[in-house]
Design goal:
434 Repressor (Amino-terminal Domain); alpha/beta; 13 helices; DNA-binding; elongated; 46% helix; six-stranded parallel β-sheet; homodimer; Rossmann fold
Chain lengths: 328, 328
DNA sequence: CTGAAAGCGCTTACAG
DNA sequence: CTGAAAGCGCTTACAG
């Protein structure tokens, strides 16, 4: 039914081997190449990638395993990864783990079954720990969440520095009781918490933070309780844009005006952080770069397998807006 | 190097055929099944999907081709599609076309090379027209953008009704000069425009709309000119959430207060549309449903190929907020 | 530069 | 229920 390489060979009056070579840019005379191309056009032939992969032992496929595509950080990174991949003639298999270690295990298994060429992966803390014991079967670049052991290439933000910058920014603006809300599922949340704690300690101030599940709703309900308690902070640093929207909603529900009753700063320069009055102060991550560089590291690793492990640490950019205006 | 089905067979003391049957739930005695399972565990065997696909002629892969994952509508739909697919034990190949017909053609070719089981596709107008002439090689469900010819199953919003509802909402609130901004790349934009025109005509009012490229920046610059001209509308209906953010920025840049100087309504109930003061009135689309139903239609089609073509039209829900408060 | 032949790792009639 | 054999559609040594 479907036309195969034999049909093309017949139509072109050559052997299947020649068709294969002509299509892959191998050494074929101009004359035969033209015949093959004509036959391909005439028959509407499209190679069967499953067969090609099986025979060539190359899947030409990149695995991309992230927490949740609806997190704008991962949306943007994924777009960059895909662009790089398709530009290099490779396919992308995308998986959302919802920060669930079981799903991560399942998808890693799938990646192995696909015999992927390489993996871009943002693991949970749980899986990250296991990764330092068990090496993955394919070249892997971790994004957003670094391996402490240094077994895998990775591209991460300088989380401690970025969070420290937010904290110092708030201190300069006159805030003293600066609370923190950080995600509990990834090392990123913990690194940002550490940067937060360090910056406050350095200034002789007392940290006051909470951890919560990485969703806007979890942030909102955690903050609802906090905001209505007597130890409500003057300012709040949160570790991602989901928490940021949760914080704004919780503040409004509690009747808190930003920044008068509560200064607010967070991560990820989404369009709406500028549009929400009075503008939210954020650390902008170089999202496109993170995706692109991760792919670059991966391709280099594929070309030169025994390269030393590299950790690429990118800097965030602080975008100051009205939500952290000077305390009055 | 990598362990294959033969290695498992040897370890289990059975034939490769039995291993294959045991793994696929075929008719195998309990005893041998247990032996195979033990051998799989012992060897760490993972099947090679390329080989399985080639032999079984089933890719177990769904193609998902959308305009841009960064559009929250497609982000949400994609998550729903992926969940359905993985739940059914299928893989998803995701492609972003950026509304470029050439990329669409390229990706459709790729889908054919992957011999995908089925396709979920949001085509541009250009490609949609071609689709009515040339039938795709695989079962296809169109989302967001319907085929007029009725050659493909599809899941769409009732665009005319939804836009009409926004227009009537504005008329009721006292607005008369109601402008429109609609995307020019998809039929969705045009359908929404038609609904807009029809609703205004029905009320004896004059339509005043512009079309533009489907990006926030394009919307912003189109509106910048319009807002500073003497024929600036009192209210504006826009056809997606990218345009909504562009409209808010353009309004602020022009010093227009919402809704006093400009009422605003659009599509897609993103978190931030509630957070941006005074709250933006939107049509909420049943995004999860659109993805889920598209997959449901696809699976039914796979089971029963000769089903008549179905068009599923879902209704939006109007979420009224401050941006369309009654005219004073 | 070209072709005949082998084989990638599975699944699936076929026979028992 | 089980195994031996064929074959999915390609690519790639091998020989010329």
């Amino acid at each position: 039914m479907t036309v195969g390489i034999k049909d093309v060979a017949k139509a072109a009056g050559v052997s299947p081997a020649t068709v294969s070579r002509a299509l892959s840019g191998g050494p074929v005379s101009d004359e035969l190449r033209a015949q093959v191309e004509a036959a391909v056009k005439a028959t509407g032939y499209r190679p069967n990638l499953a067969a090609r992969r099986l025979r060539s032992q190359q899947s030409g496929t990149i695995g991309l395993v992230v927490a949740d595509l609806r997190n704008p950080f991962f949306t943007a990174v994924s777009r960059a990864v895909e662009d790089s991949a398709y530009r290099a003639g490779m396919r992308v298999i995308l998986c959302n783990t919802d920060e669930d270690p079981e799903r991560e295990a399942l998808y890693l298994q799938l990646m192995q079954e696909e015999r992927i060429t390489g993996l871009i992966f943002a693991p949970t803390r749980t899986t990250l720990e296991q990764l330092s014991r068990r090496r993955l079967e394919f070249p892997t670049v971790l994004i957003d969440r670094a391996s402490p052991a240094g077994l895998y290439d990775c591209v991460v933000l300088d989380n401690a520095a970025a969070t420290g910058e937010l904290v110092r920014h708030l201190i300069e603006r006159g805030y003293r009781h600066i609370g923190g809300l950080f995600g509990n599922a990834s090392v990123t949340g913990l690194e940002r918490r550490d940067g937060y704690v360090a910056a406050l300690n350095a200034a002789g101030l007392k940290p006051d933070f909470r951890l919560c599940a990485p969703s806007a709703d979890a942030a909102r309900s955690t903050l609802a309780g906090w905001f209505s308690s007597p130890d409500r902070p003057e300012a709040l640093v949160v570790s991602n844009s989901l928490f940021l929207s949760g914080a704004v909603r919780a503040a409004r529900a509690a009747g808190l005006s930003i920044p008068r009753d509560l200064a607010l700063a967070g991560f990820d320069n989404e369009v709406w952080t500028e549009l929400v009055e009075p503008g939210l102060t954020v650390i902008e991550q170089p999202v496109e770069d993170i995706g692109r560089q991760a792919m670059a590291l991966l391709f280099e690793r594929l070309q030169t397998p025994h390269l030393p492990v590299r950790k690429l640490v990118l800097s965030g950019r602080c975008v100051a807006r009205g939500s952290t205006a000077a305390r009055v």
